[in-house]
Write a structure and sequence with these properties.
alpha+beta; 5 helices
């Protein structure tokens, strides 16, 4: 018996078909783990992002409550001061300036974040003041006056942008002010940016987040959890996403951008 060493035609065709199938299947076998890995990475990133977004929202909500409490406490203080000034003319305040200065100094010492308090006349000239921030420095620079910063309508309170110097010679602070009850003047309280930022820092501790308190009027910085470095911008770019979000405020929102601060 002699065995034929030639491969039957049907067997060769079968092997050729299997070879072509293997060549087609091999890329799919290689690609499948890559697709699975990419899908897993995307899913992990999505979960991480949602967690981060939730955590940022939680910290931002806490910072909002902190800022609201800070402003509420100081508007109440200004209400109380304005009530005490009811019926007092500019001349009477000037005559009793030493007594008013002592009263204001007591208020400054009782409020760790407060850097200055002032009573102004209708021309924004200080009648009495106290604190480490001179009354003249509680005013905006240039031709703008505090009165220009008062919101239109019946609201009595206004908030100034940051003032002071970045070299530390005059501590940077921002002012909350309101109209006096019976006169055309104002009462002003100046709050330190550094202690306000320290409060934000305590909220952000352990999270790695940087919290910034931004003025809704012009997107300028009022306080920052990690301080305000010399030379760093004190206002968001006017054409940037933060300024646009502030100008067209529609409530809390999350945007993924490179922070200008």
């Amino acid at each position: 018996f002699v065995a034929d060493a030639r491969t039957p035609r049907t067997a060769r065709q079968g092997r050729m078909t299997m070879t072509r199938a293997a060549r087609l299947l091999l890329p799919a076998v290689i690609a499948l783990p890559l697709v699975v890995t990419a899908a897993s990475a995307w899913l992990l990133w999505s979960i991480t992002w949602r967690h981060a977004e939730s955590e940022v929202g939680r910290v931002a909500d806490a910072a909002t409550e902190y800022a609201q409490g800070l402003l509420a406490a100081n508007t109440q203080f200004l209400d109380s001061l304005a009530e005490r000034l009811r019926g007092q003319s500019d001349a009477a305040i000037t005559t009793n300036e030493p007594d008013w200065r002592q009263t204001l100094q007591t208020a400054v010492l009782a409020r760790p974040m407060t850097r200055g308090v002032a009573i102004l006349n209708a021309a924004d000239v200080p009648l009495a003041s106290a604190g480490t921030v001179p009354a003249a420095r509680m005013m905006p620079s240039g031709t703008t006056t505090l009165r220009d910063l008062l919101p239109s309508g019946t609201r009595r309170f206004g908030l100034s942008p940051l003032h002071g110097t970045q070299d530390g010679q005059i501590e940077e602070s921002f002012s909350l002010f309101r109209r006096r009850e019976s006169e055309a003047g104002l009462v002003v309280v100046s709050l330190g940016a550094a202690p306000a930022g320290a409060g934000l820092g305590r909220l952000a501790a352990g999270s790695g987040d940087i919290l910034t308190l931004v003025h809704r009027g012009d997107a300028s910085i009022l306080a920052r959890s990690h301080g305000l470095p010399d030379g760093a911008p004190r206002r968001a770019p006017p054409d940037g996403p933060i300024a646009r979000a502030v100008a067209g405020w529609q409530g809390p929102q999350t945007v993924m951008i490179r922070s200008p601060f």
